[in-house]
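Q: I have 151 residues here and want to know how they pack in 3D. Can you give me a structure?
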Amino acid sequence: MKTFQSLAELAACVGQDVAVSDWVTITQERINGFADVTGDHQWIHVDAERAKAGPFGAPIAHGYLTLSLLPVFFDSALAVQGVRMGVNYGLNKVRFPAPVPVGSRLRGCLHLMAAEPLEGNGYQFTWRLSVEREGSDRPVCVAEALVRQYP
């Protein structure tokens, strides 16, 4: 985990690869739980037997499940001292260029694209987060995430 002493110190990293998260394993239980919460029970995610005969040879995680892990990746990759509040402000762009088969290990690579000062000494950070799957040469998710943080 990379630790910054202030939001200004983090803001000085614009244009840099800032941090890499811990690995997260995608289990069938996680996929099933996500399906239950979202109501997306498509067979390619939750029917292991049918998915074996499908295009990927196994169940795959929902793209939005992968996207929902962004806070997990951020939390294990970096910390900023003196931050009392952070909020997800939105996404500019999201793509899922490769599938996430059950059993995959994922991690997030964080690149700081922009840092805009906000009223109250906060910042809006624009991050490019590339989610890697262990053993794959293609990312499984690439997203531009907007995060606001305040001291």
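Q: Anything worth noting?
A: The two ends are 20 Å apart (CA to CA). The first helix runs from residue 7 to 11.
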